[in-house]
Each structure stands twice: as structure tokens, then as C-alpha cells.
């Protein structure tokens, strides 16, 4: 049994879903571990991780619009230290989650046919987000 980890930095362009499936798969392929369990962790409270459809171009926009309708900006939040999108970003991150666990077999994530891993940027301005990849296996 072995374990390894690394940090990926993803540059975002403001509120967006940023697919990082290929970067993760590349690291996984170089890991030397063929079977195990991959944990992905986002080190931020205003960004999050999700697995969703990565084939239809409309899906990311639909998800972002739903999140904006569900958690709108406004003066009804006490916390606005970094602007009007600050507290809504924290709530969106809470709803979508900060970690994923994905089984690995034959050196590949066991994702479904149309599934991809996304970093969700919930802030309006660009950021550099860090996600930790931790692989346990053999």
C-alpha cells in the first residue's frame, strides 16, 4: 500500500466551472499506483468541487445560473468583507462541497461516460485556486 499527494493550482476567470479532469488524470497516470482511492480536496471557502456532465456545453451555465437563483447576492447578508459576492460564494461552496472521493482502477478514475471533475469558482473575480490530490493504493 502506498500513498502520494500533490497540489494542483487552477487559474479561474471569475464565476465559472473549470474542468480539471485531464490534469488529475495526467497526475494519476504518472503516479505509479494503478488501483486505489483518490481524494480531491479544495482548500478554499468560496470555491468547491463537483462531478457533473462534461459533454454538453450548456450544463456549466445552467448550473451556475441555478446557483445564482438559489443563493442570490444582496444586502441581506451581514458578511460582505470582500464584496457582495463573498457570502453567497461561501454558501454555494457549502452546498456543492469541498471534497470528492473517486475509486481508481487500472490507473484511471472510475468516472462514468459523461462525468468530469470540476472546480467551481463562486467569486466574480479571477483567482488561483488550490486543490489537493491524495491517492492511496497499490
UniProtKB/TrEMBL annotation:
Q: Which Pfam families match?
A: YjbQ
* Family label: Belongs to the UPF0047 family.
- Please identify the protein, giving its name as recorded: YjbQ family protein
Give the species this sequence originates from. Answer: Altericroceibacterium endophyticum
Lineage per the UniProt record: Bacteria, Pseudomonadati, Pseudomonadota, Alphaproteobacteria, Sphingomonadales
Amino acid at each position: 500500500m502506498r500513498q502520494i499527494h500533490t497540489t494542483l493550482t487552477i487559474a479561474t476567470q471569475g464565476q465559472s466551472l473549470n474542468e480539471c479532469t485531464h490534469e488529475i488524470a495526467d497526475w494519476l497516470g504518472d503516479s505509479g499506483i494503478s488501483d486505489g482511492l483518490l481524494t480531491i480536496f479544495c482548500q478554499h471557502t468560496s470555491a468547491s468541487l463537483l462531478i457533473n456532465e462534461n459533454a454538453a456545453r450548456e450544463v456549466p451555465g445552467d448550473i451556475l445560473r441555478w446557483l445564482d437563483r438559489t443563493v442570490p447576492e444582496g444586502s441581506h447578508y451581514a458578511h460582505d468583507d470582500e464584496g457582495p459576492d463573498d457570502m453567497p460564494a461561501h454558501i454555494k461552496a457549502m452546498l456543492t462541497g469541498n471534497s470528492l472521493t473517486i475509486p481508481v482502477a487500472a490507473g484511471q478514475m472510475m468516472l462514468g461516460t459523461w462525468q468530469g471533475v470540476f472546480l467551481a469558482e463562486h467569486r466574480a473575480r479571477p483567482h488561483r485556486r488550490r486543490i489537493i490530490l491524495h491517492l492511496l493504493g497499490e
